[in-house]
UniProtKB/TrEMBL annotation:
Taxonomic lineage from the root: Bacteria, Pseudomonadati, Pseudomonadota, Alphaproteobacteria, Rhodobacterales
InterPro entries to which the protein is assigned, alphabetical: ArsR-like_HTH, HTH_MarR-typ, MarR/SlyA-like, WH-like_DNA-bd_sf, WH_DNA-bd_sf
Single annotated GO MF: DNA binding
Keywords tagged on the record: DNA-binding, Transcription, Transcription regulation
Gene3D superfamilies, per the entry: Winged helix-like DNA-binding domain superfamily/Winged helix DNA-binding domain
Domain HTH marR-type: 1-151
Organism: Dinoroseobacter shibae (strain DSM 16493 / NCIMB 14021 / DFL 12)
Cytoplasm as UniProt keyword: no
Biological-process GO terms, alphabetical: response to stress
The keyword DNA-binding is annotated on this UniProt entry: yes
Identification of the protein by name: Transcriptional regulator
């Protein structure tokens, strides 16, 4: 169900711009608002959204290599290394050499990082805020449609290349 405000925004945009609506633009604006909401909710805990994503991964998986961590959180190794370094400086994470592969570095959560564990289900609060007013069917459909769009984008990249 659309809210009255959203309906008026869509009608206004359609009348103002005769071009069809841009899905990318809408996703970008929605992502921006969601990120701002996440940052506002995480700030009192001294965390950024990328730091929470790293903690969340490590809470689920335990100690893992920084390369695997980068893969799991979906960022490049340099960006993940910078995030981990900042979190290590704050005492939330610890790095150590992998005893089985001296070239590899393992990352683990410290006791201070574990103390933030109540934030593990933080995304439930975000989902509730974003999906307020949606029926259970609409909620399921929203996830379905976004997953299909992600799949289509990946397929187009593989098919069409750079």
């Amino acid at each position: 169900m659309f809210t009255r405000k959203l309906k008026h925004r869509i009608i206004y945009m359609a009348n103002k711009n005769p071009n069809p609506p841009s899905l990318g633009r809408q996703l970008n604006f929605t992502t921006g608002q969601m990120n701002a909401l996440c940052q506002a909710w995480l700030a009192p805990h001294g965390l950024s959204l990328p730091q929470w994503v790293v903690l969340s991964c490590l809470w689920r998986e335990g100690e893992i290599s920084i390369g695997l961590l980068a893969e799991r959180v979906g960022t490049g190794l340099p960006a993940t290394s910078r995030i981990v370094d900042r979190m290590e400086d704050r005492g939330l994470l610890v790095k150590r050499k992998d005893p089985e592969d001296r070239r590899s570095v393992l990352i683990a959560v410290t006791a201070a990082g574990q103390a933030l564990d109540p934030l593990a289900r933080f995304y439930d609060h975000i989902n509730e805020a974003l999906l307020a007013g949606f029926t259970p069917t609409e909620r399921s459909l929203a996830f379905d449609l976004l997953a299909r769009m992600e799949h289509n984008a990946r397929a187009a990249q593989e098919r069409d290349g750079p």
